[in-house]
Amino acid sequence: MARSRPAAPVPGRGSLDSLLAAKEIVVACGPGGVGKTTTAAAAGVMAALRHGGKVLVLTVDPARRLADALGLEGIGNTERRVPAEAFRAAGLKPRGQLWAAMLDTKQSWDALIRRHAPDERTREEILANPLYQNISGRFIQSHDYIAMERLYEIHSEGAYDLIVVDTPPTRNALDFLDAPQRLADFFSSRLLRWLIVPYRSKLVNLATKPFYQIADRILGTQFLADISEFFILFQSMYDGFVERAEAVGRLLEDRRTTFMVVSTLEGVPLREAEFFAHELTARRLHLGAIVLNKVLPTYLQDAESAAVAERMKERADEAASALVPVLAAADPALGDEAQIRRVLTEVADSFLNFRVVALRESEERSHLADTPEVLATVPFFDTDIYDLAGLVRLGEQLWE
Amino acid sequence: MTELVDLRLVFVTGKGGVGKTTVASALALFASQRGKRVLVCEVDAKGDVAGFFESSPTGFKEKEILPGLFAMTMDTEASLREYLKLQLRIPVVGRIGPLAKAFDFVATAAPGVREILTVGKLCYEVREQSYDLVVVDAPASGHIVGQLAAPQAINDLVKVGLIRSQTDWMLEILSDPTRTGLVAVCTPEEMPVNETIELAARVREETTVRLATVVVNRVLPELFGRQEESVFDALDAPPAVAALDGLLGGDPTPLLEAARLAVTMRRTRSTHLERLRAGIDPAVPLLYLPYLFTRSHGLRTTRQVASSLGEELGY
To answer: Structurally, what CATH architecture does the domain formed by B4-221+270-312 represent?
Structure first.
């Protein structure tokens, strides 16, 4: 999707409001610990409130954070509607419906096998294979593919007007984008055939023999046999799998899909987010929005206030003694000069401390490259967001 | 219980964004300042460790970046090559091409293989005693359990063969609380605290590694004591604001507002700290590192964190 892009954000040019109204899938991505899950949930809540229709928030994070944020106990792999009472209790009248689901990697893999297995016997053998159980349950790369697969599955069923997906915390932010292609490549690998051949025909040719000698010595024959069995079984599902993985890849590139990169203005996460935004563009994926969370208030950058803080420190003695009668007038217990002095110094120091951070972050923000149409900034909330009302508070900031 | 810096192998994990690499780097620096020979290994090759020490990029071959402090980046394929050379005495050079492909394939097919090569290389450095301490900037808390449980998982899967004979000594090192420990880093925020409590439970149930310490990073300073807070409230009222405005020749409101925000943030966070303390085994110590109001990250910051860490450890 080639698209011209403004060099700098044009105010009023785009909003999350119009972006979410126009797309069917919003993929929230970015570094860990920046409020990605909460932002995705807030975007979903706002779309349900303002746009109507059926909105699904699909979280793939194993930490069950969305459940916390939405006040839903134990949401699972199947989509569940956020109860209307929850909205009513928060004084909200949504125009549409909000649904939520959490990705269960194991369940999703099992479902995938059931769908693709040619017959009952193959299905049961795969489900019982020790390697399969490890891949689907214990080990880590399997989250990435299954997240995108599940997104595809839900989207193709067509039950929702908008799906907001929260991406898994990957080692590398791009893993989940590559996952469908990697899986397709994997199943079409020549090595896969190498591995399977001897267990089919006992015929090991000269080219593959050294490989077997090494593999046998490292892994042991039984393990190798388990691997081979697993892939022989998987071969029967090869076409279905590859086709599916390619379809998942196409969906991500589709015009109906957009990406929302979430970050804070802290150095390390921001650089990761920038890299991500850059990669999305390079892969011709639609970078719809950048959301910057936990941004400190702008008044901290004010030079005039900084000067006041400096004077407050310098003249703390003078100010404290002048304030003794003022404070004592309200409550005699508060007229302790030394204490007033300490409080004034703390207030001034705290302002100047936070100012250092605010200035650094503002500088970081001005360097932000690859700015998409929507650049939303969310202030540092002084309390946690743990309910619908909180999500709306956050969502309203996003919407502006 | 063995002190943190007296362990031989320390895995540092935490939810993304809490300062895992900062703490790993600071711990390594602190131990090296105490005269230990330290290796810091970055498992997710993002190059952040080099950034924290302002060194040139690190690779699989360890490199001394400060006196007594060595750094390396994990590369599972290089690890396999090294392993084959040491263990099998296979003439690797001639077979490196197909081997690399085969490795990539087997590692994807049996995903425990990648993890075992990482853990294996780290345990190897411990066994060979090339270092007093190996600090691992490990995968994030969502992934660390899979990593630490890999030797056991491989043990369950592979009944014979060379790999099997290798997992036994690895498990012995990992399970020894006087040698190996896990450090979980979190910030005093809701989700990181939840995740840390979950992690502690999973590590106990699914791995043989002991949770040695929880490091709470970015703890905000407490501005006021109880009585001082009443003074602050009185300062934030119109008569005092007007008086301050006159005295200082400028509106003090933004200063008071910023202080109010700092106090509220600190208070919200302290409830999470209480939850953390209640949710973690009382035998596991909690260390607190202050929020740093600094211009940038880099060696200077790493030194600051290292010295705070030292203070918390009682040095």
So the answer is: 3-Layer(aba) Sandwich (3.40)
A262 touches chain B (CB under 8 A): no
pLDDT of B308 reads 96
Cβ of A231 and B293 within 8 Å?
no
A386 in any annotated domain? yes
Cβ-defined contact of A220 to B262 (cutoff 8 Å): no
Same domain, A81 and A229: yes
Q: Which of A34, A23, A11, A7 is nearest to A286 (CA)?
A: A23
Q: Which value does ipTM take for this structure? A: 0.86
Task: Please indicate whether, in this complex, the C-beta atoms of A319 and B115 are within 8 angstroms of each other.
Answer: no
Residues of B in contact with A330 (CB under 8 A): 234, 237, 239
Based on the fold, state whether residues A354 and A227 are members of the same structural domain.
no
Nearest to A100 by CA among A38, A15, A177, A175: A38
Would you say residue A10 lies in a domain?
Answer: no
Contacts of A168 (CB under 8 A, 6+ apart): A60, A61, A62, A103, A143, A144, A147, A176, B142
Q: Which residues of B touch A33 (CB under 8 A)?
A: 15-18, 187, 192
- Of A119, A114, A184, A115, the closest CA to residue A145 belongs to A184
| Contact flag A218-B189 (C-beta cutoff 8 Å) | no
Digit-coded pLDDT (tens) for A209-232? 666 666 666 666 666 677 777 777
- Pair of tokens at residue A190: 């020549």
Task: Using a CB–CB cutoff of 8 Å, tell me whether B248 touches chain A.
Answer: yes
> Could you tell me how far CA A171 lies from the centroid of its own chain?
12
Same domain as A160, residue A305: no
- Flag the least confident range among A42-56, A93-107, B83-97: B83-97
Residue A395, domain member (yes or no): yes
Say if residue A354 is in the same domain as residue A389. no
C-alpha dihedral (A121, A122, A128, A132), degrees to nearest 10: -170
**pLDDT of B26-76, one tens digit each?**
999 999 999 999 999 999 767 688 989 999 989 999 999 999 999 999 988
Contact A304 B143 (CB under 8 A): no
Burial call A341-379: b when 16+ CB within 10 Å, e when fewer: bbbbbbbbbbbbbbbebbebbeebeeebebbbbbbbbbe
How far apart are alpha carbons A345 and A335 in whole angstroms? 16
User: Which residues pair with residue A166 across a beta bridge?
Assistant: A28, A59
Q: B254 to chain A: which residues are within 8 Å by CB?
A: 299-300, 302, 305, 308, 351
| A141 and A76 part of one domain | yes
Same domain, A207 and A318: no
- Name which of A164-168, A222-226, A375-379 the model is least confident about: A222-226
Q: Which of B48, B149, B234 sits opposite A268 (nearest CB)?
A: B48
What's the pLDDT tens digit per position in B125-146?
A: 999 999 999 999 998 887 788 8
Q: In Å, how far is A196's CA from the nearest CA of chain B?
A: 12
* pLDDT given for residue B24 in this prediction: 97
Report CB contact under 8 Å: B105, A217.
no
Measured CA to CA, the distance from residue A349 to residue A371 in angstroms comes to 35
Do A232 and A335 lie in one domain? The reply is no
What does the block give as tokens for A123? 């299905």
Nearest CA in chain A to B222: A346
A288 band by pLDDT with thresholds 50, 70 and 90: very high
CATH number at residue A66: 3.40.50.300
What digits encode the pLDDT tens for the residues B80-115?
778 777 766 655 544 445 556 566 656 655 556 778
Based on the domain organization, do A101 and A247 belong to the same domain? yes
Interface of B with A in 219-238 (CB under 8 A): 221, 223-224, 227-228, 230-232, 234-235, 237
Across the interface, do A302 and B189 touch by the CB < 8 Å criterion? Answer: no
pTM over 0.95: no
Domain span at A197 = 16-298+367-399
Count: domains in chain A: 2
Across the interface, do A168 and B142 touch by the CB < 8 Å criterion?
Answer: yes
